[in-house]
Write a structure and sequence with these properties.
The chain is mainly β and about 90 residues long. The protein has no helices and ten strands.
């Protein structure tokens, strides 16, 4: 998953610098933050207040939750939810 910030004046998007600029299941060799429950990520949504992002992952069969800080960087929240609604440790 890529973390972008929008320039409010121009509307342009810029990826945050490594490793804050992305989150991946493997961490991509240190280029990204290491995440869980992201295999087969298919959809991302941001909460209305912009504080959280949620990723639905088909292969992981889960929804991963992230907090967004002021810079736009994503920090995965502890645990994730599989499609049955069970919260899993993580």
């Amino acid at each position: 998953m890529t973390a972008l910030v929008r320039d409010r004046r121009t509307g342009g998007l810029t990826q945050l610098p490594d490793p804050d600029g992305c989150v991946s299941e493997s961490g991509s060799g240190g280029q990204c933050e290491d995440g869980k429950a992201l295999r087969g990520a298919a959809s991302v949504t941001v909460s209305p207040d912009g504080r959280n992002a949620y990723v639905a992952s088909l292969v992981s069969d889960a929804v991963a939750a992230f907090a967004r800080d002021r810079s736009g960087a994503l920090n995965q929240l502890p645990g994730w939810t599989d499609v049955s609604g069970a919260t899993l440790a993580g």
